[in-house]
UniProtKB/TrEMBL annotation:
Pfam families: Motile_Sperm, PK_Tyr_Ser-Thr
Designated name of the protein: non-specific serine/threonine protein kinase
Residues at which ATP binds: 56
Domain of life: Eukaryota
Length: 450
């Protein structure tokens, strides 16, 4: 590697110092563990600015040993990135193998995912920011270490994503990571398969060829964990089946997958942001390596989802009441006219274009004399929302059962890039061979005004 923070020896911490900080590795200081050993929290002395540190000590019975220890040390010494946990020092006195890091106050993400009452406090926007941070950390490993170096994490999972006091994600645990040259025509390594079962790329498992796409796969699994608010190795029921998360993810068709979303955040997620994340997550876990995006692309998608999520008014477009098609998502799935006798009644319909193409739409109603749809046609830009207002003529008395006989037919079709409303013709929506015209029929009801 080209850049270096200096000699490893400068980072030596005496065992005595560590014993003091962890109260001789007492149980009360224990904060976590993994394949390497146990991790303790402790405050170091003045020489280390009294900082609070996480102290990872190899367990004598660990299957990981000197190799993983040295590997992690040599890696972490070189890394400098906001989304990679900072290295403080190490100790190899006596038979000890200890690594000391900056302490991440909010612990690892898996601890949150494990308990619904912890995870429900993390909003959709915060989850997106955590994913963004983790994606930036991975991108740094894959392509931010200079011209010639690329690191593959190899054990990316929610247990190896730490959260600091501001919920900023910090990737940790580089014991299994591999570094190698970046600009070789075939950037892969032939290795003994390592990693954690549920996050492990099946393609790597089968071929033993390690590529950075394997980290992308694991990242996709974490995205699904964040969407569903559950750990990949816990079971969940969908309909009448209970299964592991990734089985459900692979079995769910596009119209069903939103049922996997964590009920605690359903009302917060704007549907365009949901569809962007869902799509990129599916691309990450694709069994076809070529379909997996680079981490740089993933970052762009998450940023886009965050931008959309932040738009004023977008919180109305939650995924609880919608129709999903190939091009459009309609909110709500049934029009609801507030009933005020002898007054016009008004309701909104939101059309979200979930594709990367320009989409033309038109809306017709079965009762054109009673309903005015504005606009009743138009172009929706990629990944954008079009708000429609439907005005219904006044009625003198409440209809039986609050039923409304108006129906609305929404048609959608891909339009040429750059198309405007002026380019819309009725013929565009005619069904022809090899052309997809999407069609929805929306019903309507009256609702009492509170
Ligand atoms: N810097 C840290 N701050 C807070 N918790 C940490 C820190 N480092 C590790 N942990 C906790 O300890 C666990 C194990 O640490 P990790 O570095 O992943 O070791 P292992 O190689 O044994 O998996 C993490 O999942 C996390 O819960
Ligand atoms: Mg770990």
């Amino acid at each position: 590697m080209s850049s270096s923070k200096g000699n490893l020896e400068n980072y030596l911490i005496p065992l005595e110092e560590i014993n003091l900080a962890t109260k001789n590795f007492s149980l009360e200081r224990f904060i976590g563990g993994g394949g390497f050993g146990k991790v303790y929290v402790g405050t170091l002395s003045e020489r280390w600015q009294n900082c609070t540190a996480a102290i990872k000590r190899r367990a004598p019975d660990s299957y990981q040993g000197e190799d993983e220890f040295r590997n992690e040390l040599h890696m972490i010494l070189k890394f400098k990135h906001e989304n990679i946990i900072s290295f403080i020092g190490y100790c190899d006195e006596a038979d000890e193998m200890i690594i000391v890091y900056e302490y991440a106050t909010n612990g690892s993400l898996d601890h949150h995912l494990q308990y619904a009452n912890k995870m429900c406090d993390i909003t959709w926007t915060q989850r997106l920011k955590i994913c963004l941070g983790a994606a930036k950390g991975l991108d740094y490993l894959h392509s931010g270490l200079g011209e010639h170096t690329r690191v593959i994490h190899r054990d990316f999972k929610s247990a190896n994503i730490l959260l600091d006091e501001n919920l900023v994600a910090k990737i940790c645990d580089f014991g299994l990571s591999k570094w190698g040259p970046k600009n070789q025509p075939i950037t892969h390594l032939n290795t003994k398969v390592a990693g954690t079962q549920f996050y492990l790329d099946p393609a790597y498992h089968e071929s033993h060829i390690l590529r950075k796409e394997s980290d992308v796969y694991s990242f996709g699994v974490v995205l699904f964990e964040m969407l569903s608010g559950m750990l990949v190795y816990s079971e969940r029921s969908l309909g009448n089946k209970a299964a592991f998360l990734m089985t459900l993810v692979r079995q769910s068709d596009e119209k069903k997958v939103h049922e996997l979303v964590d009920p605690h955040i359903r009302h917060q997620i704007s549907s365009p942001s949901f569809f962007i994340i869902k799509e990129v997550a599916y691309q990450c876990i694709s069994l076809n390596l070529k379909e997996r995006p680079s981490m740089a692309i993933v970052i762009g998608k998450i940023e886009h989802a965050l931008d959309i999520q932040g738009l004023p008014g977008s919180d109305v477009l939650t995924i609880t009441d919608m129709c999903v098609g190939d091009f459009l998502i309609l909110h709500p799935s049934k029009l609801k006219f507030p009933l005020e006798l002898k007054k016009h009644s008004l309701c909104s319909l939101h059309l979200t274009n979930k594709t990367d193409q320009f989409i033309a739409f038109k809306i017709q109603t079965t009762t054109p004399l009673e309903c005015n749809v504005r606009p009743n046609n138009g172009i929706i830009l990629p990944r954008s929302v079009c708000n429609i207002t439907v005005i219904k003529r006044a009625v003198k008395e409440a209809p039986p059962g609050m039923m409304c006989k108006s129906k609305f037919k929404v048609k959608a079709v891909v339009a040429p890039n750059g198309a405007t409303t002026n380019n819309i013709t009725n013929r565009m929506f005619d069904k022809e061979e090899n052309k997809v015209v999407e069609e929805f029929t929306l019903r309507a009801i009256y609702i009492h005004v509170s």
